[in-house]
């Protein structure tokens, strides 16, 4: 079993929809959570990060962490065609370093105009 | 800043040939990472350099893989001899510090026939 599980999709939604992307993890040492966005033929880019349980908002994006359930989510409000990409969750121990990042396999999202 | 620069963008080679992938990290970044991305295994860390020194190469799959960082502005990943199962997208990433966020290059799409 992988330490981080992510539904690969593909997920297709109409423009303006609310999108929910999710990851589950098994390692309770993971305390630092990130979401990366990867456009086609590009490298991943960091979208959001959070250390704590609860919600963190940045514009149309909200990252949610439930450590008791070992479950994290990324919500996209008012989704746009430009949000079409693969979204990867990533996580590591709080005291760890970037080399300890474990990535999910990514969810491919298409927002239809 | 031009970001992390990788070359070539695409490489097609025959089994048994030597392949060299190149990376120029962002100026001022002291940590460099090589990743491999496949549909089956997602994003995997191959090797991590800090201040040009290889710190963790536990992700390098076999002795056929080697990486060097002769100076702060250049790194190579070499596969010799290449095999079809090496076909993947190889990403280089850099960060200002080992705990800071990663900046990825656009990757090299490698196809070994």
Structure description:
The complex is a heterodimer of chains A (113) and B (113). Chain A has 113 residues and is mainly beta. Chain A has strands spanning 4-6, 11-14, 19-25, 30-38, 45-50, 54-58, 61-66, 71-76, 85-93, 102-103, 107-112. In chain A, strand 6 (54-58) and strand 7 form a beta hairpin. Chain B is mostly beta strands. Chain B has strands at 5-7, 10-13, 19-24, 31-38, 42-50, 53-56, 65-71, 74-79, 88-95, 103-104, 108-112. In chain B, strands 2, 4, 5, 6, 9, 10 and 11 form a 7-stranded mixed beta sheet that branches. A 4-stranded antiparallel beta sheet of chain B has the order 1-3-8-7, with no helix packed on it. The model of chain B has no long low-confidence stretch (mean pLDDT 94).
Count the E strands of chain A: 11
Work out the helix count of chain A: 0
Residues in helices of chain A, as a percent range: under 10%
Q: What does the radius of gyration of chain A come to? A: 13 Å
Alpha carbon gap, first and last residue of chain A: 37 Å
- Oligomer state of the chains in this structure: heterodimer
Percent of residues in beta strands of chain B: over 45%
Q: What's the tally of helices of chain B? A: 0
**What is the end-to-end distance of chain B?**
36 Å
Order of helices and strands of chain B: EEEEEEEEEEE
Report the sheet with the most strands of chain A, covering strand number, pairing sense and barrel closure. Answer: 6 strands, mixed
> Which secondary-structure class do the elements of chain B indicate?
mainly beta
- Evaluate the radius of gyration of chain B: 13 Å
Question: Average pLDDT value of chain B?
Answer: 94
Largest sheet of chain B: 7 strands, mixed
Instruction: Give the beta-strand count of chain B.
Output: 11
